[in-house]
Amino acid sequence: MAMMRLRREDPRVVGSFRLHRRLGAGGMGVVYLGSDKRGQRVALKVIRPDLAEDQEFRSRFAREVSAARRIRGGCTARLVAADLEADRPWFATQYVPGPSLHDKVAEEGALSAADVAAVGAALSEGLVAVHEAGVVHRDLKPSNILLSPKGPRIIDFGIAWATGASTLTHVGTAVGSPGFLAPEQVRGAAVTPATDVFSLGATLAYAATGDSPFGHGSSEVMLYRVVHEDPQLHGVPDALAPLVRACLAKDPEERPSTLQLSLRLKEIATREAQGLVDARPTAQSGGPDRPTGRLAEQYADQRTVRRPPGPGTPPPRSNGSRPGSRPTPVQRTAPRSGGRPAPRSGAGRPAPRTTGTGRRPANPRLLRQRLFVFVVVTLLVALGIAAAQGCQGPARGLDRGDMRREVGQERLYAPPTGEAMADRHAGGPSAAG
After folding, report:
1. Hey, is 22 helix, strand or coil?
2. Ramachandran angles phi, psi of 159, nearest 5°
3. What is the pLDDT at residue 290?
4. Residues 47 and 88 sit within 8 Å (Cβ to Cβ)
5. What pLDDT score was predicted for residue 177?
C-alpha cells in the first residue's frame, strides 16, 4: 500500500494513536497509518467533516462499528478501536502489509487459475464470517483486498451495513464502485449476502483477466451494463468460468452461497495446483523427447556405464535397479526380437550383450577386472609349475648317473656264467687271459 506524507491539515494524533503517514482517501474519509504506545500499527480512518455533521450517518456508523466488532475470522482486518462520539468519528483496524489485489494485477498481470481460486477460497471464507455477524460489506472490490504474507485480507468496511438495509444514502445515489456493484444495489433494493457474492465474482474475473467483466466507461454506462448486460468473461480459465458466471447472475437467488463458493474454490485450487506439479517433472525429464525402444536400451546402458560400481559393489541386478529403488519397467530391459542392439559404453565401443535371458549387459569395467585377474592367476600357476619342474630336473639326472655306475659295477662283478666256467676249466683263452 502506497504511503504519503501527512499534509498540513492532517491531524498528528487521533485518540491514543500517533499518525505517521497517509494511506489513502475515499468517499467516507482519509485513512492514516498510526501506532499506539506499544508500537502496534493500525489503519485509522477519520470520517469527513460533512458526514460527521449528519446525525443519521452517525447512527448508522455506530451500528456498523458494533456489527464489525462481532466479526471473527482471519480473512478480515480486525477492528482495534473506534470513537463514535468524537467531533470527527474514527475507527482503527489492524494494519495489513502488502499490495492490494488491484495493484498486484496492474503491475504483474493477471493471476493464474490456481492463484485466483486460492484467493477466492480465502475471501469466501472471510465473507462467511462477515455474514455470520450480520454484516454485508457492500463494496468488495480489488482495491479493498490486501495480499498479505499470511493470505488475502478484506478491508474497508466503511460502507458496510446490516443485512436488509437499503443501499442508497440519498435518492438516486448508489453506494459502491461501478463495475463491482450488484444489480440490486443499483436498483436500490435490499442488500443480502448474495450482494457480496456478486462483487466477489466480479473481483475474481478481474484477477483472472486484469479487467472488469463489464468493461470501462462512465458510472452511468457501467451501472447500466451491470443491470442489463451479460458479463464478458473472455480470458477467464475454463475451470473458473462457470463458477464466476454463477456469481454474476442478475437474480440474487441464483447465486451460490459463500460457503458453497469456499468449498468449490478450494477444490479448484487444489486441482489446478496439482496439475502444475504434475506438469513440471514432465517438462524437466524431457517428456516426448525421452528415448524409446532401442534408444531407450542404449540410454539405460550409458547410464549404467557412467556410474561404475565402487570397490566391493556387487554386480548389477538383472532388472537394473538398486536396493530400495523402484523396479525398472520391463519395456526398458527386455531385448527386442527384431535384432541385437549395439549398446555403447562410456568410451563409445560396443559392449558385450547377452540375448534371450532378459538380462542387461554386464559392466565392461567389471569384465575387464575379471579378465585381468584370470590372466594373472593363470600366469602365476604356470610359473609355479615351471619352477616345480626346474627343481625336479637335476635330481632325476643324478639318479640316472648313479644307476649307470651301478649297472657298470654289476657288469664288472657279475658272477661268471656256465660257459665261462667251462672255458676256465678247459684252459681256454679266457683262463689264460
Report:
1. strand
2. -110, 10
3. 44
4. yes
5. 77
From CA 153, how far away is CA 125, in angstroms rounded? 11
Pairing of strands 90-94, 151-154: unpaired
Note whether 354 and 361 are within 8 A (CB): yes
* Nearest of 104, 99, 106, 69 to residue 84 by alpha carbon: 69
Cell numbers describing residue 337:
526380437
Cα separation, 350 vs 341, whole angstroms: 10
Under a CB-based contact definition with an 8 Å cutoff, are residues 22 and 32 in contact? yes
Question: Would you state the pLDDT for residue 368?
Answer: 83
CA separation (Å) from 178 to 131, 143, 232, 365?
A: 22, 13, 15, 76
Question: Which strands make up the sheet holding 13-14, listed edge to edge?
Answer: 13-14, 17-25, 29-35, 41-47, 90-94, 79-83
Catalytic residue, chosen from 139, 156, 196, 301, is 139
Residues 6+ apart with CB under 8 A from 248: 198, 201, 202, 205, 213, 231, 255
Q: What integer pLDDT is reported at residue 333 of this predicted model?
A: 42
Q: For residue 2, what are the contacts with CB-CB under 8 A and spacing of at least 6?
A: 23, 24
Q: How far apart are CA 29 and CA 235, in angstroms?
A: 36
How many helices (H) does the chain have, and how many strands (E)? 14, 12
pLDDT of residue 169: 37
To the query of whether residue 139 is one of the catalytic residues in this protein, the response is: yes
The 3-class secondary structure across 350-365, one letter per residue, is ECCCCCCCCCCCCCHH
405 grid coordinates: 655306475
Query: What is the dihedral sign for C-alpha 333, 337, 338, 341?
Result: positive
Q: In this structure, are residues 137 and 157 in contact, taking their beta carbons and an 8 Å threshold?
A: yes
Cell numbers for 115: 492463484
Q: What is the pLDDT of residue 279?
A: 54
Count of C-beta atoms within a 10 Å radius of residue 211: 16
Whole-angstrom distance, CA of residue 145 vs CA of residue 76:
9
Residue 331: the pLDDT is: 46
**How many residues in total does the chain contain?**
433
Those residues of the chain that have pLDDT short of 70 are 1-2, 157-176, 276-362, 391-433
Predicted local distance difference test score (pLDDT) of residue 257: 95
Q: Flag whether the pTM goes above 0.70.
A: no
Q: Crossing angle, helix 258-285 and helix 193-209, to 10 degrees?
A: 20
Q: Report the pLDDT value the prediction gives residue 330, as an integer from 0 to 100.
A: 43
Within 210-293, residue ranges assigned H as helices are: 219-228, 241-247, 258-285
Q: How many Å separate Cα 303 from the centre of its chain?
A: 27
Of 322, 330, 266, residue with least CA distance to 296: 330
Please give the pLDDT value at position 109. Answer: 95
